[in-house]
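Journal club prep — side note

Before the paper discussion, L.F. wants everyone to see what a predicted structure for a comparable chain looks like in token form. Sequence:
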Amino acid sequence: MDKGFLRNMSFNVILLGVVSFITDTSSDMMWPILPMFITSIGGMGLAVGLIGGLAESVASILKVFAGYWSDKLGKRKPFVVLGYVISSISKLFFPLISAWPHLLLLKPLERFGKGLRTAPRDSIISDSVAKGARGRGFGIHRAMDTSGAILGSILAFVLFWFLDLEFKTIFLIGAGISFLALLPLTFVKDAKTKPKQVSLRIGLEEMEDPLKLFILVATIFAFGNFTYMFFILKAQVAFQPLFPEKMKNAMPILLYTLFNISYALLSIPVGALSDKIGKRHVLATGYFLFGVTCFGFVFAHSLMSFIALFLLYGLFYAFVDGVQRAFTSDLASKKLRGTALGAFHTSIGLAALPASLVAGFLWDICPEMTFVYGALAGFIASGLLVIIIKKDIYST
């Protein structure tokens, strides 16, 4: 592979980062207000868990197939483009919601687009950087992604607090912005790979044992990594006696922004750290941080405690989100990288529904029990990763 091609491919990371920046600006105008919107139209904890978990699980079934077909056809970009288009179109219907069951169709449809694009997009990123720099490559992408989330949540706060717009109007503006992401996407160049004659069953069977073990541990963690919406709801409930009605809804949006700022600032340095000391150590720390964060939410009641915990929640994401993808890429052989990333995303996505259903069920009994459940999952996954996988392994 010549140097010109490598330079061209490296630019893909930036372009895909810009796409994700715009997409997350759109999405995170909507997502921080979504749990409060659900409760405002009659949904309880179980409804929040069902919507959040079903969206990730139903859509994630597509991820392994999208990754597999991108390997088989030797093309990634068509899946990425179609995925972003589907997500953008589905967002246009959010302002029309009048009852929370409508979200049982719309949220999975929006996530369907994410499921179609994620594994092929991550494969393009993985193919665009040297094997010893994948942590930084994914870190750069996640930082740009989350920078968009920061802008989106700030815009949501401004529109809600200063312009006094309703939730549905904010949904509409966010949906319109999502279509702007399609412009830089046109300049992304696909990796020049040959179609591969491999069945899905054989592809999964051929994955290396360390990769299979890691996916197992990541899935165990995912069973406790419930939807972010419960963190926002906990803050909203805690602020009920402290602030007026409008401020009670505005403060969680700002805390969500704080979480994204923490995540964005730390994604690149944590990705570089994972390249230096090993992704296994970084991930074990990240899982442990999630346990600590959830344990803190059990006792959180003041504004200062929530500020600290949302910052810690962002630190956890920096240690886990992009690094998990990079570690999966390192453990997978190049010919099955798309399939492996799809299998990883699907496994943790399928765990999202039971995770959020359990969290929602526990929330309706006692909100603190939700976070005890998450803390246990984080601590267990951290220990298992250290015990089961003894060292980092790098594939080409």
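L.F.'s comment for the group: Confidence is low (pLDDT under 50) at residues 1-9. Keep this in mind when we get to the figures.
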